[in-house]
Amino acid sequence: MSAEAADPAAVPRRRSRPRIDLRRLGRVALLGPVSRDRLPDAIGHVADAHRAHHPDADLAILHRAYVLAESSHRGQMRKSGEPYITHPLAVTLILAELGAETTTLTASLLHDTVEDTEVTLDQVREQFGEEVCYLVDGVTKLEKVDYGAAAEPETFRKMLVATGNDVRVMSIKLADRLHNMRTLTVMRPEKQARIAKVTRDVLIPLAERLGVQALKTELEDLVFAILDPEEYEDTRALIADATDGEDPLSAIADSVRATLREAGIGAEVLIRPRHFVSVHRVRRKRGELRPTDFGRLLVLVGEDADCYAVLGELHTCFTPVISEFKDFVAAPKFNLYQSLHTAVVGPEGAVAEVLIRTHRMHKVAEAGVVALGNPYAHDAATAQDGTTATQAEPSDERADPTRPGWLSRLLDWQESATDPDTFWTTLRADLAQDREITVFRTDGRTLGLPAGASCVDAAYAQHGERAHACIGARVNGRLATLSTVLSDGDTVQLLLAQDTASGPSPEWLDHARTPAARIAITGWLSAHPDAPGPDAPGPEAEGPAEPAADGPHPTAPARTRSGGRAANVLVDGSESPTRLAGCCTPVPPDEVVGIVVRGGAVTVHRQECPAVARMREIGRAPVATRWREEEDGWSDTAACRVTLVAESFGRPRLLADLTEAIATADAAIVSATVEPPSEQRVRHTYTLQLPDAAGLPALMRAMREVAGVYDVSRAQHPAATG
Fold this sequence. Notes:
Helix content: 40-55%
Shape: globular
Structural class: alpha+beta
Largest sheet: 7 strands, mixed
C-alpha cells in the first residue's frame, strides 16, 4: 500500500522520527552477515536506530553495556540455538526503534545479566549508576527456589511497584516479552499456551494502559496465533486475499490528498493496514467485512489546530458517518492517546475510517510512555550522561507518566492483597477493565475510576476505609443509591454516617468494581462477621433518606450479616459452635485459627487471613483450632467441599468449558448457579467436592485458564451444602 504527502514541501519529514515498523526487525538484522558465534557489529544496529531519534546521544555507555552483557552471557544459548546475547540485543533494538532514551537502552542490554549470569546489582550500580541499576533490578525475576508457585505473581508485583517509581521498568518488560513471543515456537505447545495467556491477561492490558500501541498490537497478533490458531489462519487468509487485489482505500486517499491540497493544508495521508486482531474484531462485529475494513486512512499534520481544519474539510467535501466521530484531541484517553476519529463515504460509496493527528501525537500513539523519554530529565539542571538534559521534551508539552491514576490505584490495593493468589486474580480482573472514566468531587478535584464503577467505588477511592460509614450519595446534585453506576463527567458527593462504627453490607460487593473497594469491604466483613451494617439502606434500597439541612443524616434500620455453616474443625478445650470464615474459606490442610465472635461462636480463618491480624489489633485473642481427625468422626467428603466463584465475560459454550475444566481436575459439582449477565459479565458459583483438598490450587488454575474467565476465588459467602 502506497503512502505519499499531500504537500511534501509544507510538511518535511523528520529524519529523527522514522516510521516505526517493528515487524521488519529480526535475527538477520541483528546478526548481519557475520557468523553466529561472532557479533562484534550487532550493537551497530542499536546505535543507528538510537541516533535516528536522538542524534546527539552519547553512545559510549551503550558500548560499555554491550561489552558487559556479551561477556557475561558468553557460552549461553537460547532454546532456538542462537547465542543468548541475541535476546538482549533484540529487546534493546525494539526500544531503540520506539525512541527510548539512552538510560533505558543501557538497562535493556543488561536486563538479564543479574538474573542469568554472575553479574551483581552492585557491579551494575558501580559501572552504570543508580538509575540503570534500578531498572535492571525492576525487571529481574524472583527465584522459584525461594518463592515456589508464587514466583510469577510476586515477580509481577515487584515489577509493578518498581514501575510506580519509574515507568521505564515496564517498557523494558514489554519489549522483553515481545521478543520472547516472537521466538516462542521453540517451546512446547503447553508452555506456549501458558505464556500466551499471561501475555493476554496481564502484559497486553499494561501495554494498552501505557499507550505503547506498537508493542500491544504485535503482542495481540502473536497471542492470537497461539491461542486461536484456526481463527488466526482464517483471518490471515482474508488479509492475504485482500492484499492481492486492488486496495479500495487508495482512491479515497487520493481524493483526500487532493482536497487538503486545494485547501492549503499541509498533511501527510497514509493508508494504515489493520493488524490481524483488529480485522478479526471488525469481522465479529459486522459479520461480513467491507473491502475498506482492512485498513484506515491516517492523516498527519503539524499543529493541533490543523487536526480540526482537516476534519472540517473532510466533513464538508465528503459525506461523514457522524456516529463514527470521536474527539480524543480535546479529551485524551487515560493512556495519553490523542487523535480525531471519523469516517467518510468515498467517491464510489465506500466507507473509510480516518484518523487525524499531529506527528507528535502519532509518536505518542505508537510508543506511549516510551516516546516521552526520561520522565525525570526535565527536572535535571544538567545531564548526567550527556543525554538526559538534551533529550527532555519541553515541560509544557509532556505529561508525567510515572503515576497515572490506574497505576496509583493498583499500587494502593496491592498492599492489601498480601496473598499471591488474591493479588494475581485481582490484578487480572483489574486489568480487564479496559476503559477509564473521570468523575468530579464537590471540591472540584477529580477521581479516576474504571468504566462501570459505582458510588461504592467512588466512596473508597475518595475516603479509603472511612467509606465503611458511607450511607448514600448525590450524583449530579440528586440523591442516588450506592449501587448507581457512574458516567464520565458525573459529579459525586458521598454521604457519611456520624457513627464511624457502622460498616458495609455484603451486598456492596455486588456493586464494587475496583479492587481497593472489594478488598476493603471483604476485610471489614470478615473482621465483623456479626456486626450491623451502616445506618441506611444499602445499594439495593430505593435511595438514602434526605439529610437534614444542618444536622447529621437520619438513621434507618440496621442490617446484619447472615451466619455461615458448621465446619469440620475442633476448638481446643471448647465445645463452642464453629463455622468457616467467608473471607478466606479454609479447607484442609490449611493452617487455621479460631476467633471468638459475639454469642460465643468461633469463626475459623486461615492463619494468614488479614482478618486475624485485625482481630488481634482490637483485642480479640485467637484460639487454637484444628481440623477434625478421622478418630474425631471427620468426613473426607465434607472436608474437601468448597465453594468457588468464577467471574467471566459472557460467550457461547462458556458454561460447558468451565464444567469440563472442573471435571478434568477430578472435582464433582454439588451445586451450581449462574447469575444473569450484567454488563456482559457473568458470575458462576460452584459448590464442589474434591478427592483431596490439596488439589484446590490446581482446580482454581484450571478454571482461570478457561477463555473469558478473568477471576476465580473462594466464595465470600459459602453456599449451604447440606
